[in-house]
Amino acid sequence: MAAAFADAGVTGRLHARDLDTGAEIGLGADTAVSTASVHKLCLLVTLYREAAAGRIDLTRQVDVPAAGRTPGSTGLGAMLDDARLSLRDLAYLTAAVSDNTAADTLWDRIGLDTVNRTMADLGLTRTVAVHKLRDLIAALAEDTGPDSPVDPAVVARLRVLDPAFTNHSTPRDMTTLLAALWHGDACPGDHGAALRRLLGLQVWPHRLASGFPYDDVRVHGKTGTLPTLRHEVGVVEYPDGGRYALAVFTRAAATTITLPAADAAIGTAARLAVDALRAQAAAGRAR
Q1: Whose CA is closest to 30, among 163, 121, 119?
Q2: pLDDT tens-digit map of 130-172
Q3: Exposed e or buried b for every residue in 227-245, given b needs 16+ CB within 10 A?
């Protein structure tokens, strides 16, 4: 795994967990990381947990005016007209295309404190939401100023890359959250199933899913991206019933926006981790 990261020119942090045996593999698994849009998973778990408790109606319709939307290249942030959607459709956009406006519309109704309290209740001791997406993007714009976002001198001053400043977690905390979601502890019953479905609808195939290019292997994930940062967390389900929670966070040495090798390294490292867990399980059965 370390070699896969090094070959791609990135520093990688990873944690992988067999959801049935509890076996795990890690590389810097307890290192604090800036989560970027991966933190939307914490938001979504909180939303569906609140709905399961009867405190939120996911079918409630919400107006999303064209003015004042959180910047983003996908979903509502890229659209031009006023919109009206249900909370669960906003959740879909948040999960499937990482829509910043949809996410902030949900953040505004749930609140940072509720999300942080939920994460603490689920045992995520090092996962904290500091700000919503609009504030993160504002800090990024302020630090970049008129300069190029790929200038190494600019990247060096970006506060949103520092876990001490921004939303943060660890790879181990993220697989803890995924395990709670898949085991039904985070969101019980139909609400958990609904959220797992949304994570399976994510459209990006170039990171985690690239390591599992098979029709009978299901990949559920949530990406996160900031200058030099490329992340994805998710669960991979094999046709034989094997289920593996994965959290991969990377930071590239290069500041270029497009870096396919760094994206692919996430899938490669994840696949190596799953292969190791499966080999370990097979060896245990053979004894």
Answers
A1: 163
A2: 999 999 999 999 999 998 888 999 999 999 999 999 999 999 9
A3: bbbbbbbbbbbeeeebbbb
Helices (H) and strands (E) in the chain, counts: 10, 9
Task: Tell whether the model's pLDDT for residue 286 goes beyond 80.
Answer: no
- CA–CA dist 8, 253 (Å, integer): 9
Spatial separation of the C-alpha atoms in residues 136 and 229, rounded to whole Å: 14
Cα distance between residue 29 and residue 42, in whole Å: 18
pLDDT tops 80 at residue 284? no
250-261 burial, b at 16+ Cβ within 10 Å, e below that, comes to: bbbebbeeebee
35/33 Cα distance (integer angstroms): 6
Q: How many alpha carbons fall within 13 Å on the CB side of residue 3?
A: 2
Q: What is the pLDDT of residue 149?
A: 84
Q: What is the mean pLDDT of residues 232-243?
A: 98
* Domain 2-286 = CATH 3.40.50.150: no
User: 9, 10, 49, 22: which is closest to 172 by C-alpha?
Assistant: 22
pLDDT tens figures, 40-88: 999 999 999 999 999 999 999 999 999 999 999 999 999 999 999 999 9
Segments making up each domain of the chain, as ranges? 2-286
On whether the CB atoms of residues 167 and 129 are closer than 8 A, the answer is: yes
